[in-house]
C-alpha cells in the first residue's frame, strides 16, 4: 500500500478542499489527519465524509492552538476567513479576521509541513496582509511560489469563480529540486478565446439531468441523492411574476423594462451596476460565483436558466462540483452556507495534483506517521 501524504485542513468548512486532495475520484494521494472550523454544522459535514474518528474539531483556531499539540503533517491547506480581504467588505480596517493567517502560519511551523496551500479571495494578493504573510513565511524558511489568481472554470468547474492561491515550500526540503511551474496549465478555455482546449463546462453539463421542477421546500430525508437536496421555495405571487419577467440571460434591468410596476424603487433609482442581480443563468455558460445565499435571486444571477425559480441546493452543489454522494448535514440555511463557502473539489484536485508533483521532488524523506 502506498503511503499517503499527511494533510491538515484549517478553516476547512464542509471539506471541499479536502475532498479534492483525499477523494479517490480526485487526487487520492493524501490522507486527512486533522481539520478545524468554527462552524459546527460544517464540522459535522466534514466528519460525516472524511473521519470515522471525528478528527475535525469545532473550535476557534486560536483557542485550539493555545491548548493543543499540532499533529505532524506534510501539507497544510485552507484559507483564513476572507471577509477581511474582500472588496465586498468596504470597512475592512480593524477586521479581526485579517489576523487569522497568523495561527495558520503557527500551525505550518509546528506541524513540520513541507508545503502550505493558502486559498482566498483575489484581493488577498494585493493586501498589506499578504506582505506580512510573505515575511512570516520567509522567517519560517518558506518560499512562496509565484502566487496567482486562478479561474476555477479553467480547471473543470462549471463556474467562473476566481480565487487567489499561494503555495509555500520549505526551502530546506527542496534544495536543488526541480520544481514544476505554477500555476498548473488550464484544462479548459473560454469558448470566446482561440484555444485547442475544450470549452468551459457549462450549467447544462452540471444540472440539465435534474428534474425541472423541484419537490417540496425543505431537505428531503426520505429521498436519496440527488433528489434529497433538490427542493425549492414558495415564492409570493409578486416574486413569481418578477421571475417570469426576466428572459433567458436577463437580469434586473430586464425586469424593469418588462414590468416596471414590479421593480423595487431602489433598483429603479440605481441605474448602473448590479447586472447579475435578479439574473438568469445561461445553459451554455458556466455559472457565476455561487455564494451562500444562492437561493435568493435578489443576491445575484441565481435564477434557473428557463424555470421561474432560483436554483436548488443540489443544483448549487453541482455547480460547485460536489459529487451527489457527498453528505451535507445541517439545516437548509447551514448547508447553503457550506456550499457557498466551499472550495470546489474539482479545482482543489488540480491543486492536489500539483502539490503531489512537488512532493515527488522533496529532498528529505517523508516523516513517519
Work out the count of structural domains. Answer: 2
Sheet with most strands: 7 strands, mixed
Q: Estimate the strand proportion.
A: 5-15%
SSE series: EHEHEHEHEHEEHHHHHHH
**Rough outline:** globular
Strand order, sheet with most strands: 3-2-1-4-5-7-6
CATH top-level class of the largest domain: Alpha Beta
Q: Strand pairing plus helix content: what structural class?
A: alpha/beta
Termini distance? 14 Å
Oligomer: single chain
Instruction: Report the C-alpha radius of gyration, rounded.
Output: 21 Å
| Helix proportion | 25-40%
Overall pLDDT level: 92
The CATH topology of the largest domain is given as: Rossmann fold
Q: Provide a count of the helices.
A: 12
The counted number of beta strands is 7
| Name of the CATH superfamily of the largest domain | Vaccinia Virus protein VP39
Structure overview:
The chain is α/β, with parallel strands linked by helices. It has two domains: 5-192 and 343-360, Rossmann fold (3-Layer(aba) Sandwich), CATH 3.40.50; 203-341, Alpha-Beta Complex (DNA Methylase, Chain A, domain 2). The protein is 29% helix and 12% strand. It contains twelve helices and seven strands. A seven-stranded mixed beta sheet has the order 3-2-1-4-5-7-6, with helices on both faces.
